Structure formats: C-alpha cells, structure tokens
Amino acid sequence: MDGEAPPPSLPPSFPTYVFPQQDQIAAEEIDWVTLFSGGSDVAQGGGSERRPPPAPPARDDPGGKDENNNDSNRVVRRVRKAIPPRIAFHTRSVDDVLDDGYKWRKYGQKSVKNSSHPRSYYRCTHHTCNVKKQIQRLSKDTSIVVTTYEGIHNHPCEKLMESLSPLLKQIQFLSRF
DNA sequence: CGGCTTTGACCCGCGC
DNA sequence: GCGCGGGTCAAAGCCG
Asked: Which domain holds residue A140?
C-alpha cells in the first residue's frame, strides 16, 4: 500500500506517546484502581482466579494429539473474566513493536473486526512473568499504534539492569571505602 | 541447534 | 441454542 502516511514532522524512530481519549479507549481498558492497589497477581499463574472445573467436559479431541492430558492443561489456562490490570496507550511510531526494554515473544496474531490491521499478541519471555501485551495499529490513523499491557512485570527490566550493572558495580566498589 | 515467528485450529464468552 | 468475535495453543518453518 502506498497510502502510508508518514508521521507528520516526527522522526520516524522516535515514538510519541499519545494519551488516548475517552472516546477512543473504553473505560474498562484501564483499571486504575486494580492497577494501583497491587492487583498484579491477578495476571499471575498462582492466582486463585482460575476457573474451577468441577467436572471438565470430556471433550473428544478429533486430532487425538493430546497424549498426556492436554485437556487439563487447556482447562487450567482458561481464566474466568478476572479483568487483570490493563494499560492501553497510543504511540505514534512507524514500528509496530516499540522497544520497552522487556523481551517479548509473539504467540498469536488475529485480524479483528472494524480494523484493517491485525492485532498481535505478545507474552513476556521471562519464565515467572505472565505479562501480555497486544499491539494493534489504528485503522483511522495508521501512524498510531495502540499498545495494551496486561499485568505487571515481576522482574526488573533486562535492558535497564544491563545498563545499570556497571554503575552498580562501581557503587559497590566505592562503598567499600 | 535453540529460540522466535507464522498460521490454522480450537475454545470460550457474549449477544441475539 | 446458535453464531460471531476474540484470545490462545501448538506444530511447522525460519533465522541467527
């Protein structure tokens, strides 16, 4: 498509954070109360918010690919509408994925209704971290990328620690005197 | 060779 | 009850 409008008077590599307006982001997309009241474990794996399966329906798997109770795995992963803390913001950038310092692994992509651009699903690669994020480009303004974070990281930012480690070492060294 | 992306299939929630 | 839309899984392929 050649109708790609370049960001107006903005360096292409410099993301600009645009706070969403009320009519652009649904209110429930930002659960500030849950967010600031330490509701991070909602998105963690150890939460008790898991769907209680009293009697999991014996789904017959046509593929028969589950040899070691894949059913139970699927049952466990289904979370009842727990509404984890979510932060959605708009970013003006030519890059779909903005580098926030964390490492993400893509686990899905889906075309959504009312949008010509697919929505991408990412998950934090840290073993103990369950944070997810969705990335979608606005159909109205293709220079705007909507990033929705779900959950809170329970580990330090790798890149941040990487850049800080020399400084920390120096501080430790100096603190011995 | 290990990690990541792609992509089709599957499952669930919700509205009608 | 049914269909639609959204979210996730997992196998296969790709790449450094």
From this structure: 84-176
Number of C-alpha atoms within 13 angstroms, CB side, residue A92? 15
* CATH code assigned at A147: 2.20.25.80
Q: What is the pLDDT of residues A27-44, one digit of tens each?
A: 334 444 444 444 433 333
Beta strand pairing call for A132-137 and A144-150: antiparallel
Q: Tell me, yes or no, whether A96 lies in a domain.
A: yes
Residue A114 lies in a domain: yes
d(CA A157, CA A135): 20
Task: Verify if strand C has an atom below 7 Å from the CB of A38.
Answer: no
Which nucleotide across the nucleic acid strands is nearest to A106, CA versus C1'? B5
> Of the given ranges (A56-60, A71-75, A148-152, A172-176), which has the lowest mean pLDDT?
A56-60
Q: Which nucleotide is nearest, taking the CA of residue A108 and each C1'?
A: C8
The total number of structural domains that make up chain A = 1
